[in-house]
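Re: beginner question about structure tokens

> Can someone show what the tokenized structure looks like for a real chain? I only ever see the sequence side.

Sure, here's an example I had lying around. Input first:
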Amino acid sequence: MKTNKQTEENITSWFRLDTSAKIYPAIESPEEPTTFRLSMTLQEDIDAETLQHALNIIKPRFPYFNVYLRTGIFWHYLEHNPNPPIVWGETPFPCERLYPVYNNGFLYNIRIYKKRIAAEFLHVLTDGSGGFEFLKTLVCQYLILKGKLNDFPEGIMRGDEKPLPEEYEDAFLNVMKLEKEHLKTIPKQRTLFTKDSVFKMRGPVLPLGHLQITRGTIPFSDLKSIAKTYDATVTELLSALYIEALIHVQHDQVKNKVRHKPVGLTIPVNMRNFYPIRAMRNFSLFVVPRTDPKKVNSFEDIILSQKNYMKGHITRDNLLMMVKDNCTLGESTLIRSVPVFIKNLVIRYISNTQGHSQFSGVITNLGAARLPAEMEQHVDDANIVLGPSIHSLTACAVIGFKDSIHINFGRINKEPLIEKHLFRRLVEMGAHVSIKTN
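And the corresponding structure tokens:
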């Protein structure tokens, strides 16, 4: 019988980067660390030695995360990392740039602070949904070692299971196979970029590596009730408020209204909600709704614009065309034959001139963080934070846990321009908002 370690090594000699991950080695930098953080807060202070033991136990269960990032002639790729992962103490700021050379080569790290366990990932590995599944298994294994649980409850990936191929395959290529016939019926359309730029916030920024977090906690019932009055989802409501805040900032920073530009947000779409693929690597697409402030007379105009955009763009055909565009680009024989250093230059150029110019801010909603009842009773909190970006200055990450929704703003600009407006507006709308910062 194969040991867990042997199974890990056999599965993971090396991986190609998934379709979404291919851009990240080219754009990652001190100003754009491409990191995000997921965390859970337990009811007792974390025992670092026990957590290290738990991490060592579950490591073979996630071979696609236990890798080095390597540079080949034509592509970056992931190679099996046999080193032990490390549990670290907290740093002054979350989502600092991750340097694998100081982290036994790993592209994720685990940090503890009092009762909190945090997992930080480079986006080249996974997205929020994949990372959260890993964190759930880690926390569950820790609780088992501490005698709080007897075994892994249903709904948690067991630490002693063998990984399924679906977990580490490129989910986007799997969608192409599943939808091969339907793709032939979709009219070709351009979905990657447009040439129109949007408003970008200006102003003094924090020192490099600093990230200011403002977290607003709201009863789920309050937010749901407000969204219902506009016949909108929570994501549509919050993105409309975010856009409203950006419009106000543009009015303050650009006095000549003739020069006002559209305001756009980038919003991840979790493709697991559309396809039953058990993907643990990146499986998200991005939509970029934008609003022209010259056509806005009220908040209702903004939220209607958001609703119409979501309804028109988060459809099977539109998402499939985005998948096809991305996969076709990545699998192109011509592009695959270009040396990686040239690819990196081209990707950085396109990202800076067309990619980042598309959006003024970022908002992601991980949805409700659901845990089995026997595990949830030992967890007081769950959270998500997006890393900083010089291109948007402010990013918003949303997660629901138990009866509350946490709205986390991470910013590198010195003034809390967006979060101040958004939380004040929610209070005006009747929400009970509790604020914490780092």
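Each token stands for a local structural state, so reading them left to right follows the chain. DSSP finds 15 helices and 16 strands in the chain.
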